[in-house]
Amino acid sequence: MPLAFESISHGTIAFGFFNIDSDMLLLDRYFFFSTRFCRHIEKLAMQNPLGAFTSSWQGYVISDSARIGDLMGAIHKIRYTGFIGDVYRRFPFPKNDIDFKQKPEGDQSHDLMTAMIQKYGTPVDIPLVFDPSTEQMAIGPYQFTLAQFNALIRYVWLGGYPRWRDDSPPAYVIRMKAAINNSPHHLLRNPELAD
Fold this sequence. Notes:
Order of helices and strands: EEEEHEHHHHEEEHH
Distance between the termini: 25 Å
Mean pLDDT: 93
Helix content: 25-40%
Shape: globular
Low-confidence stretches: none
């Protein structure tokens, strides 16, 4: 489930997985796959910590909240609106609470999720930018302190809420964690990810 996170630019915003059968993340009104997010964090981790860094990946933006949909209504099977409604029609919330775990194989749903979001969202390049002069990160228009950004990384590492099934993150998340832990980029070091 998405959780509330602090940003410099937009105050409190939602970030996280919104369906256990997919690895798609939402960041306020932006949607992108966690595989791409993790790959670009790996790239950042390998960079000179004193240098600026910019990369980008493709995602989607949905400007109208009605087109995003009603997450709680879809979870409770009472309101299936917008993109999130379509996702929950295809991947309903589990009947048993014990099954409410983020699935490590969620990246296998990319084609289906892409087809669904194309009806609602606009494709957009989402830049990831590190500014060493301010020690700030940005994902698209959303700016974060390094502590705030590290909280996003930790969320993905854990599988958000309710966490990865069997506490087993997928290989791409394990690679991201290893890259961070072996990084010369001291500003990315997150003691909560240390082995």
